[in-house]
């Protein structure tokens, strides 16, 4: 079984827009307890790689068919040093960056929404750093006033962006997902 109900959201997002393929290298941000990791590891298969990052420790997957393609890191994605560790772990081109990061809920919607958007923007920056041309990006964000502007920024970097609320997340009605497909030309690394 899956470690979280969240697993079904990634399944549904992937069914909708085919985000992850066999042999891919995928980076999963906000990965604990590991439901998305399980789904992503199944999709990439034994020749793929999934790197999961979270503030919380992620328990190693039990399934022997998935454990080899998964690596986990504990760290804060708002810190540059965590991003550097992710870049190092990926060791080259990344095909998809997926983020289910969410803040600890304060109960005050405008604050939680602002924090969610901040995390989503951090995920976007990470995606721009890591994704190869043609790569895909999935990100969760709570609906709110600045989300359209964020969407426009993401649209500039990808062929298209679909905004959706998967069935599995309808009861948490404030969360939406961007599925950004086909990163436009990634800058060539210059080494300086
Ligand atoms: N996708 C996961 C799954 O399927 O099991 C569930 C993710 S849960 C909804 C959101 C996660 O985001 C939490 O585990 C939280 O610790 C993580 N998170 C929040 N802020 C973070 C940050 N700055 N850096 C890394 N992870 C963060």
UniProtKB/TrEMBL annotation:
GO terms for cellular component: cytoplasm. It is found in: Cytoplasm. Keywords: Cytoplasm, Methyltransferase, rRNA processing, S-adenosyl-L-methionine, Transferase. Its main location: cytoplasm. The keyword Isomerase does not apply. Its EC number is 2.1.1.166. It comes from the Archaea. The active site is at 140 (proton acceptor). S-adenosyl-L-methionine binds at residues 34, 36, 54, 76, 100. GO terms for molecular function: rRNA (uridine-2'-O-)-methyltransferase activity. It catalyses: uridine(2552) in 23S rRNA + S-adenosyl-L-methionine = 2'-O-methyluridine(2552) in 23S rRNA + S-adenosyl-L-homocysteine + H(+). Belongs to the class I-like SAM-binding methyltransferase superfamily. RNA methyltransferase RlmE family. Specifically methylates the uridine in position 2552 of 23S rRNA at the 2'-O position of the ribose in the fully assembled 50S ribosomal subunit. This is Ribosomal RNA large subunit methyltransferase E. It comes from Natronorubrum texcoconense. The chain holds residues 15 to 206 of 261 of the full protein.
